[in-house]
Write a structure and sequence with these properties.
This protein is mainly α. Helix content is 45%, strand content 0%. The longest helix has 14 residues.
Length: 83
């Protein structure tokens, strides 16, 4: 409920696509960014998030191993904290 109270399916999809395009490879960080965005939008309901990335096997870099390319979520957090 907490996610869908403040975001549509399309909003959530767009945010995930933006993060991937920015170079994020850690799906755990993608999920955290979506939850942080919902909190920022005022959601106070319970939220659980899981992001699953289906690959065609040509790009083995994407995963939840904790590694990130330095783009995506960490870059956004750094920008938010510097303001």
């Amino acid at each position: 409920d907490g996610i869908w109270d403040v975001m549509t399916n399309e909003n959530c999809h767009h945010l995930v696509q933006e993060l991937l395009a920015e170079g994020e490879t850690n799906m755990g960080l993608v999920a955290e960014e979506i939850l942080d965005t919902c909190l920022k939008k005022g959601s106070r309901d319970n939220m659980t998030m899981m992001v699953v990335h289906f690959s065609d096997g040509t790009n083995n870099e994407i995963g939840g191993s904790g590694a990130t390319s330095g783009g995506g979520v960490l870059k956004r957090r750094k920008q938010r904290n510097s303001v």
